[in-house]
Amino acid sequence: MSVLPDRISNQDEISYYEDKTWVQCEAPGCLKWRLVTGADLDQDKPWFCNMNPDTLFSHCSVPQGAFPNESHLQKHGLKMVYSLMPVGSFVLVNARCWPRWPAILCPDPNEEEYARLGSDGYVEYYHVEFLGKPHTRYWAAAKYVEPYSIPFKKPHYRTLRGAIKKSYEVAMEEATKVKEMGCQERLEMCHFRPQELLAQAQTLMHSIDRMLKQSPDQTESQVKITD
Ligand SMILES: [Zn+2]
């Protein structure tokens, strides 16, 4: 994620940022913002504190400097751009009036895409599958989606009641397993899957089912072959 000039509104402010870019460290336990001068930034690659040419701020343990908020940036003609996180990433989504909810970045079963890019080529929305009971899916604005960070502490939400409270508890329980998984493994546990994959799985299930019915004495070896 980084900040780039959007539209020119105030030349003095722009000149301060000229040749500088705010970049966010993508280490899950860090996520600090660094003001980087004259760096060759490849927006498609992850960025970490140790890539900062400014050696005063080139380590995750160094506290973040003063970082302006998004409305301040907009006022000065700058916009925040978000690095594209890989499909299968484990994230937290900040939705209005909900606690930060754990989710997996996964393709929309209808569109088969997991990210929507704006006209400038940067990600604007992610398709997420929320953990919990039941799993639900949603296109969330990129600014509300952040990598699931290791030091994330379970907050107290006294306002959560009934089914939502139960769902949140299930989600937090699932989260402990999901954070240990790789991206591919996470995609396989998603409930909302592209139709094609679902159809393939169903065909496989049917053929296993048929095999089990046809030859009960050879079942074991045949199932292993299919596997
Ligand atoms: Zn860092």
UniProtKB/TrEMBL annotation:
UniProt name for this protein: CW-type domain-containing protein
The CW-type domain, residue ranges: 16-68
Keyword hit for Cell membrane: no
Superkingdom assignment: Eukaryota
KW Ribonucleoprotein (keyword) present: no
GO molecular function: zinc ion binding
Pfam name, any one: PWWP
Organism: Umbra pygmaea
UniProt cross-references to SUPFAM superfamilies, sorted A to Z: Tudor/PWWP/MBT (SSF63748)
